[in-house]
Amino acid sequence: MPADQKTSPTPRDPDETRRRIQQAAFDLFVEKGFADVAMREIAERSGVTKSLIHHHFGSKDALWKSSKEAAFELYAENQRKDLMQATSSNSDLLRRGVINYFQFLKDHPEVVRLFSWSHLERDEYLGENDSELVRLGAARIREAQEAGIFRDDINPVHVITTFVITCTHWFAAHSHHGQWDGIGSDEDFLDDFLNIFMDGLKPQTAGSA
After folding, report:
1. CA angle, 149 then 150 then 154, to 5°
2. What count of other Cβ atoms lies within 10 Å of the Cβ of residue 75?
3. 18-32: pLDDT as tens digits
4. How many Cβ atoms sit within 10 Å of the Cβ of residue 53?
5. Which residues, including other chains, have CB under 8 Å from residue 192's CB and lie 6 or more apart?
6. Which are the contacts of 150, defined by CB distance < 8 A and separation ≥ 6?
């Protein structure tokens, strides 16, 4: 999301007022999670009265929801187009999806932190928000399974779950595993993960099980 600006919004510019409120809420949610952020803090950070925040968004819950939507949509828009416009299902489509998601998280550490807060607080909305994208991705994987490109004994949703959780946790826990002797760079890890992940999806040959 764009960096916050300190100039005060005017009543004649409701879009700018909403943007300032949303940015302030987003930044605070990234820093502290949902539970520890007060509407007063959002008002102070944005330079907008609490009554005006309620006028534009209604509640802190609505701001939390819109913050997650904005963060997710940064990634989802391009991935959605890729899935819908692909003329055929193949391993390159899935590989590209993994790379794009990994790079998105690397470029947006604030989103990793926001998602981590959401998971800690057992927030179910993220799962609802990305369900359409998961459905599209699973349909493409299923097509590749039916075409014999991927093994057909694995749940397509579990394929997506595997790379989403792995990529997310790689960045969320970087300060932990980054201390391990022999740990590679982000690029090294992605290359190794793709080799393991994509090889594991290849159709099983006789005697390989």
Report:
1. 160
2. 19
3. 999 999 999 999 999
4. 26
5. 184
6. 91, 141, 144, 159, 201, 202, 203
CB 174 within 8 Å of CB 122: no
What tokens does 107 get?
Answer: 């470029």
End-to-end CA distance of the chain: 47
Q: DSSP letters along 16-62, please?
A: HHHHHHHHHHHHHHHHHTTTT--HHHHHHHHT--HHHHHHHHSSHHH
Confidence (pTM):
0.84
Q: H helices within 108-185, ranges in order?
A: 109-120, 125-129, 131-146, 156-172, 174-177
One-letter amino acid identity for 132?
A: E
Residue 196 CA from chain centroid, whole number: 22
Do 35 and 121 meet the contact criterion of CB atoms below 8 Å apart? yes
